[in-house]
């Protein structure tokens, strides 16, 4: 049950009959009550798809944030490519982001469907439409998780009412309530992570070996236990999922999430075996559960298309720049000459930091594409600075004020490096593109991902940030100076022996990533294994006991 007095979903559902809308590109719409009784049942997808199917049916329960949603949808599409039926369940605002991709997959014959479940904002204590914007404000995140948990009963009713019956629930690790959903349905549940197993194992070992005991200072480094190699990390850099937030509810929620993770029947991870075999094996052994590595999941799109608009749509948001224009701009630059700069879908640089970063990029002398989230939200002085910078670097610097077509940019030959906040998707997308990175972590798992890029893979140069933005005693306006930015970019993009070594390693990793995703490769084989194991009647649940 949801901690901190979250209302029981059953009670809630007695009080309020939720409407469920089954959306489809090609069929009429069905509506149902939350109790699973048909109200006006049209020809929903369920009746058209996979009638009497012997195929595995995965139910995906993703989180709305892009770093979670994009790889979960990619994974569903990959499983469908291998013959599975996949249902993605989501509130309307999330479904709206996903629908064009699902519709396109359906048109190409994949059995992917999208089931929408309206959130009960009032009961969860959320403002109406709280999830309509770019991302959910941090202060509302707790109630958003509660609102998602309230969807358990309507989702269950829907799945019971619409053939084929599910054979496996695949849920983002932030949805511990899916334990109950899967148990009620009598099917296994796999936890989905878009993280590296190196980071997962570090975090797990820090907790299970009590590495923080007796360490008062959150910025004091300790050695991560049980890795067989020396890595140092501070508690501030790796506090654990939902840990270290000074509100009691979150600590309880963190325990709930951890219980659900420990009780899962297996784990699906967006990484690939060859990149980190010792950590994949180490995490499986530590968790005593099977780990299916299926990444890089972005290859789903790259293998299907080279169309700029289609590659851009993979980001699930409208690009702030015309993808064709972006590609033309890149076409005009020399191979390997451009550095791409992005801090992902959540992080945003403070005004003074934006100026330092811009000046550092200018001073580096390299062409750049710079994605600036919420650029129009900065005050006039910063907006003016950006306009002047743009004029000075015209033809050499491209500012994207808003969502960038990242996969399109990274896969272009002109791009030779990536200044990244080390979100795992961005890091793995850099690996898949064979690019060295400048690492600039901000918070959450990004510090562990930086270690992965710099210390494990040897493809990164750090800008030297050691404290997460959320842990600074006094918020710093400038975390990284222009000189550091310039030096890091020159280092990654330069010609020296070290830079060449990083590029060689990055190219070798990209070749491994491609091989992993192809027939005979590890990720390809794991996807096939999932589809086979979770067929109706197959002993999918037995996977839990295997390591
Ligand atoms: N992304 C994108 N365009 C942008 C920013 C991000 O397409 O302008 C995509 C990016 O390719 C990645 C995801 O959004 O797949 C961001 O996930 P990541 O784990 O890198 O960072 P987060 O946003 O979760 O911090």
Model description:
With 547 residues, this protein is α/β, with parallel strands linked by helices. The chain has 2 domains: 55-297 and 519-545, 3-Layer(aba) Sandwich (Rossmann fold), CATH 3.40.50; 314-517, Glycogen Phosphorylase B (Rossmann fold), CATH 3.40.50. It is built from 22 helices and 18 strands. The chain has helices at residues 9-15, 45-48, 66-81, 92-107, 121-124, 141-149, 152-161, 178-185, 197-208, 248-262, 277-287, 299-304, 308-313, 323-331, 351-364, 380-392, 406-410, 424-433, 446-456, 482-493, 497-517, 522-533, and strands at 19-23, 30-33, 38-40, 57-61, 85-90, 112-116, 168-172, 189-193, 222-223, 232-233, 267-269, 291-293, 338-342, 368-372, 397-401, 415-420, 437-439, 460-462. The chain has a 10-stranded mixed sheet, sandwiched between helices. The longest helix is centred in the C-terminal third of the chain and has 21 residues, at 497-517. The chain is globular. The two termini are 29 Å apart. Residues 5-50 and 541-547 have low confidence and may be disordered. It binds uridine-5'-diphosphate. Residues 23-48 are annotated as: Disordered. Belongs to the UDP-glycosyltransferase family. This is Glycosyltransferase. It comes from Panicum hallii var. hallii.
């Amino acid at each position: 049950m949801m901690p901190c007095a979250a209302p029981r979903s059953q009670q809630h559902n007695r009080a309020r009959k939720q409407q469920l809308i089954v959306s489809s590109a090609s069929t009429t719409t069905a509506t149902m009550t939350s109790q699973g009784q048909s109200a006006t049942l049209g020809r929903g997808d369920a009746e058209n798809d996979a009638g009497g199917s012997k195929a595995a049916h995965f139910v995906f329960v993703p989180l709305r944030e892009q770093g979670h949603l994009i790889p979960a949808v990619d994974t569903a599409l990959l499983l469908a490519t291998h013959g599975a039926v996949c249902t993605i369940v989501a509130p309307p605002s999330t479904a709206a982001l996903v629908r064009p991709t699902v519709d396109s997959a359906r048109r190409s014959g994949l059995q992917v469907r999208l089931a929408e479940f309206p959130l009960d904002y009032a009961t969860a204590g959320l403002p109406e439409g709280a999830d309509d914007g770019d991302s959910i404000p941090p202060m509302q995140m707790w109630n958003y998780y509660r609102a998602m948990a309230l969807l358990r009963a309507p989702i269950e009713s829907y799945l019971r009412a619409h053939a084929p019956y599910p054979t496996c629930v695949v849920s983002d690790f932030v949805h511990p309530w899916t334990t109950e959903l899967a148990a009620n349905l009598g099917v296994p549940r796999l936890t989905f992570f878009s993280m590296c197993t190196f980071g997962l194992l570090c975090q797990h070992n820090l907790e299970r070996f009590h590495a923080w005991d007796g360490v008062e200072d959150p910025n004091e480094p300790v050695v991560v236990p049980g890795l067989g190699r020396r890595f140092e990390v501070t508690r501030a850099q790796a506090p654990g999922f939902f840990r270290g937030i000074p509100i009691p509810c979150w600590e309880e929620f963190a325990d709930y999430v951890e219980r659900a993770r420990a009780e899962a029947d297996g784990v699906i991870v967006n990484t690939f075996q060859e990149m980190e075999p010792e950590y994949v094996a180490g995490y499986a052994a530590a968790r005593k559960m099977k780990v299916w590595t299926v990444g890089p999941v972005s290859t789903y799109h790259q293998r299907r298309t080279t169309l700029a608009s289609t590659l851009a749509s993979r980001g699930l948001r409208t690009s702030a720049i015309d993808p064709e224009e972006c590609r033309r701009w890149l076409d005009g630059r020399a191979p390997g000459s451009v550095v791409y700069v992005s801090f992902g879908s959540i992080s945003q640089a403070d005004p003074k930091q934006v100026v330092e970063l811009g000046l550092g990029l200018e001073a580096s002398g390299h062409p750049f594409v710079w994605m600036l989230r919420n650029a129009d939200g900065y005050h006039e002085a910063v907006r003016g600075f950006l306009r002047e910078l743009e004029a000075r670097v015209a033809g050499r610097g491209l500012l994207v004020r808003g969502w960038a077509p990242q996969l399109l940019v990274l896969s272009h030959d002109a791009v030779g490096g990536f200044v990244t906040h080390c979100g795992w998707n961005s890091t793995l997308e850099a690996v898949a593109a064979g690019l060295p990175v400048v690492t600039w972590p901000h918070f959450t798992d990004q510090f562990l991902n930086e270690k992965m890029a710099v210390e494990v893979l040897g493809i990164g140069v750090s800008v030297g940030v050691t404290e997460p933005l959320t842990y600074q005693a006094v918020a710093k306006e400038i975390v990284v100076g222009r000189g550091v930015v310039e030096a890091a970019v020159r280092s990654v993009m330069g010609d020296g022996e070290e830079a060449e070594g990083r590029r060689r390693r990055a190219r070798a990793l990209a070749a491994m990533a491609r091989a992993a995703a192809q027939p005979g490769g590890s990720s390809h084989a794991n996807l096939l294994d999932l589809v086979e194991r979770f067929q109706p009647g197959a002993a999918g649940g037995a996977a839990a006991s295997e390591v």
